[in-house]
């Protein structure tokens, strides 16, 4: 059943062109009616970073080197995850017209939405690299280990896609999954090393980075971008396992529940 969904999509023509077109349209529509337009995609993580910087660095005096950059990379990874999961819970309802009145595979709708988020992530990552390498006094500079970031992001993309598939298909039969996921992400946010010092996080929650894939992704992103070292490969393998596991569960639910989405929503 899982391979059937993939094969069905793989045999369609003009897949990549259609995905890219949908992703661009999705990305533009988000900022179309805003006066600042695309600038909002760049301002959100900067504004979040400024708030947490004041609270944790100035008020609570957290002792983390290059804290602004430390926050910045953690927040853009977190924002991608939340936008890609919370933002797609009702996707089978809001984009019902795409799969009902065209030959579009449902999987394409998910991937194109995450690709739109990837465009925003790319802008934010570029902004981070400029800030960290040109303005951050404690920067270690550009390193070959920076080339690992696409692998870390691929892991994040797979994980987000899998959870997106699960949540949106569960929504077909249980609408309150939206509220439950909102509460869960609030808890997960404070149980991830976004603004905590890593040693403090590990001391308070031993080995929790192996139970929380977002924590592992943030840790590895900082290793390859800020510390100039290779990712923790054990942690990376664990996170890929989580991503693939959730993706398979998502495909199963899409096959069982997604086919009935149009009549149930």
UniProtKB/TrEMBL annotation:
Keywords, in A-Z order: Cell inner membrane, Cell membrane, Membrane, Transmembrane, Transmembrane helix, Transport
Membrane topology classification: Multi-pass membrane protein
Pfam families: ABC2_membrane
Domain of life: Bacteria
Bilayer-crossing regions: 36-55, 67-89, 109-135, 147-173, 180-199, 233-254
InterPro entries recorded: ABC2_TM, ABC2_TM_bact-type
Location of the protein in the cell: Cell inner membrane; Cell membrane
Domain ABC transmembrane type-2: 36-257
Family under the similarity heading: Belongs to the ABC-2 integral membrane protein family.
Designated name of the protein: Transport permease protein
Organism: Chryseosolibacter indicus
């Amino acid at each position: 059943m899982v391979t059937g969904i993939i094969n069905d999509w793989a045999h369609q023509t003009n897949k990549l062109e259609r995905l890219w077109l949908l992703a661009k349209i999705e990305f533009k529509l988000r900022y179309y009616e805003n006066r600042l337009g695309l600038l909002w995609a760049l301002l959100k993580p900067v504004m979040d970073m400024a708030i947490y910087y004041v609270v944790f660095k100035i008020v609570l005096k957290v002792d983390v080197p290059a804290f602004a950059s430390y926050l910045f990379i953690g927040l853009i990874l977190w924002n991608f995850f939340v936008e890609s999961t919370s933002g797609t819970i009702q996707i089978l309802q809001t984009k019902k017209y795409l799969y009902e009145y065209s030959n579009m595979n449902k999987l394409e709708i998910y991937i194109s939405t995450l690709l739109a988020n990837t465009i925003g992530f790319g802008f934010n990552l570029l902004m981070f690299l400029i800030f960290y390498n040109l303005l951050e006094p404690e920067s270690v500079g550009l390193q070959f280990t920076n080339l690992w970031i696409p692998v870390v992001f691929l892991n994040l993309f797979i994980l987000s896609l899998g959870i997106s598939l699960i949540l949106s298909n569960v929504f077909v039969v249980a609408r309150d999954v939206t509220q439950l996921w909102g509460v869960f992400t609030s808890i997960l946010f404070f149980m991830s090393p976004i603004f905590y010092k890593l040693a403090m996080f590990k001391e308070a929650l031993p080995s929790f980075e192996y139970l929380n894939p977002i924590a592992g992704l943030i840790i590895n992103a900082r290793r390859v971008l800020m510390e100039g070292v290779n990712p923790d490969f054990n942690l990376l393998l664990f996170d890929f396992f989580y991503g693939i596991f959730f993706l398979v569960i998502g495909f199963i639910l899409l096959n069982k529940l997604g086919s009935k989405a149009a009549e149930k929503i």
